Amino acid sequence: MKCRQCQQSAVIKMERHNTSLCRGCFNLYVHDQVERAITEEKMFDRAESVLVAVSGGKDSLALWDVLIKLGYRTAGLHLNLGINDYSQISQEKVEAFAESRGTELIVHAYQEAYGLGVIEIAEETARPACSACGTMKRYHFNRIAMERGFPVVATGHNLDDEASRLLGNVLQWQEEYLEKQSPVLSDEGGTWARKVKPLFRLAEREAAAYAVLNRIDYIVDECPMSKGAKMLVYKDVLNRLEETSPGTKHRFYLGFLKRPRALPSGPKELHLHPCQSCGQPTPGEVCGFCRLMQRVAR
Ligand SMILES: [Zn+2]
Ligand SMILES: [Zn+2]
User: Fold this and answer.
1) How far is the CA of 224 from the centre of ligand 2 (A)?
2) Ligand 1 centroid distance, CA of 242 (Å)
3) Residue 1 counted as domain residue
């Protein structure tokens, strides 16, 4: 198998682009897709400091690597969820990566901060683990970004993540979620850190190939709590469709982004004010995170 660009031996075949690429040309392709996502969606520019949320998995570390190589100003944020060995190994991978690149890394450990890991917090509040974890993550990404002066938070969500989430939202007709499913969530005039997903044009296997080809040492295990999650079923369904019809995920998600938005007036105003407990912006009196922690305290 030869590279379509330069005739050297190819390392990856990409059916959806009907092409095969060598290591060098594949890296150029990945950098180009990420740069295109950032500029076309107006995610951030080279003057802004980007806080990259890094779990230690392939996607977030690949994202951080690409952003560094493209010359963006970045620091990493790792949340240690307190899930035994899984969290410890994840943190070690992130620390090793940051050290090898000489970049700033912020680590926030739930166990140290709250005396509990995310599983215990979910159990004490009778919330499904992934739902409590999502509330905790969103809260900390935003709070730490605002406290440390980062206007932007980038996460490693890839095309497969976004397409499967879209499929789930469409199957349930979760219209309010559909409106929010964008690779950029605005900062609401500086109330929030802007949330961006610069890998949304890259398939999961492309992100994985990039990590392997660039010798990025990541944690291979998925989160032990995600087993049986509905999202994995949607991913599997989309992979089967992709096999028979390459490009399905791309057409599904990018087609969704291109369509005129259902609400011509844009997202409805949130009327945010400071949380009575922690001061973070919230549409209610007390933010979701503080409500969660109040239930733990009881
Ligand atoms: Zn090539
Ligand atoms: Zn709060």
Assistant:
1) 28
2) 25
3) no
Q: What is the pLDDT of residues 40-77, one digit of tens each?
A: 999 999 999 999 999 999 999 999 999 999 999 999 99
The yes-or-no verdict on residue 263 having pLDDT over 60 is: no
- Counting ligands in written order, the one closest to the CA of 10 is 1
* Residues by chain with Cβ below 5 Å of ion ligand 1: 3, 5-6, 22, 25
Task: Please work out, in degrees rounded to the nearest 5, the angle formed at the alpha carbon of residue 226 by the alpha carbons of 77 and 203.
Answer: 70
**Is residue 210 domain-shared with residue 260, that is, in the same domain?**
yes
Residue 12 covered by a domain:
no
What average pLDDT does range 167-181 have in this prediction? 89
**CA-to-CA distance for 187 and 270, rounded, in angstroms?**
12
Distance from the alpha carbon of residue 189 to the mean position of ligand 2, in angstroms: 20
Q: State the pLDDT at residue 196.
A: 97
Ligand 1 centroid to Cα of residue 162, in Å, is 29
Mark the residues whose beta carbon lies below 5 A from ion ligand 2: 275, 277-278, 287, 290
User: Containing domain of residue 291, as a range?
Assistant: 268-298
Check whether residue 200 and residue 85 sit in a common domain.
Answer: yes
Pair (260, 275) in one structural domain: no
Round to whole Å and give the CA distance between 139 and 131: 12
Over residues 210-258, the pLDDT tens digits come to: 999 999 999 998 888 776 678 889 999 999 999 999 999 999 999 999 9
Contacts of 98 (CB under 8 A, 6+ apart): 76, 104, 105
Shortest-distance ligand to the CA of residue 274: 2
Domain count, the chain: 2
Regarding whether 160 and 273 lie in a shared domain, the answer is no
- Please, which contacts does 214-217 make with residues 24 or more away whose CB atoms are closer than 8 Å? 214/27, 214/62, 214/65, 216/58, 216/61, 216/62, 216/65, 216/97, 217/93, 217/96, 217/97
